Structure of NR LBD domain-containing protein:
Amino acid sequence: MFAKIREIEFFEGIFCRSCRFDRCLLGGMNFRTMQKFPNGIDINKISAMLNEKKHQLFEKAAKSQRYPNFGQYDVTIQQEFSSGNNKPEVELLQFLLYSDDKLLHIRYSETDISPNYYNKSMSDILNNIDGGSLSDSILAKSDMFSKRRRVPKSLDFFMQQLREGVEIKPRWVTIDSFLIIEMTKTMPVLGQLSFEDKIHLYSRNGLTAIVFSMLFYSKNLQGSDVLISPAGMSPILIEHDETANLLFYKHLIRITEFNLSRKEFLILRVLILLHTATTELSKIGFGIIHAELEKLSKTLLFYEQHKWGDAKGAERFANLMINIRPILNIGKIHKNHARSRANNFPTFMNSLIFENCEE
């Protein structure tokens, strides 16, 4: 990607921060912003060639994404932790990986999610109105979604739609918000909480967990240097100011600097969701959340010490726990930005963005 988003200013001494041409194309490089071209260059021909190359790269990236079958991690985890595969920490990791596999299957499937699933209030989603028991979230219906992966469209395609005033659908922040609520609401700890405590948790840190996920997936699954959806759309195409640069580019770089493994990411995501002020929860709810936070912390420490040894693992664990605060701050900035935009979000998003606990 460029040191200055979507601009190349060689003559001012501003160069690309990466010499990998493919990554620049995928990140949205617009070569027309170069200040000078040699005489005789056919700009339109070059543009067509780059667009074709970008389309090939997107297709290659999409086809190379191979998510494991559900349950595959049961064997992998037990092999990785062969000396302690009956530990509760291993069981928790298995659950988190299994749930995320299902989420990713739906997120990257070429089958669209019907708006009927998420055009509801937070109350209806948490109580699974018209959907059966809480365990019957959309993740339990993953077989309805094709195993064929969505092929992202080019950034030029979306730029053309924006120029023509076409509303770009679906909105992936809405879909990701819905999917992460659907995934986390099936966790045993959520099942022990009152409805009011659940609402407080999602209102407080739900959007942070969602943004954290979108940034991690953009970089680690799609190889992008900007926040990008499975369809290939990036919000940085719509907004080009310093705020957008911070939200959709610099924040991704910040998350990348943590150098998280997938297991670290999954544990941290739940720690972030459950991180809340004690005064907002009932006394019973606080006790339940406190016990779960201890279990998650022990699981993270167990994973790090198994991977790095006791001393280095403890050091890595401490550094990751310190990084929760910057991630929460990133979520706060995204929430404030969302509040400043008059977007017609589904009703349930009001709880996440405006912390509206009165449904």
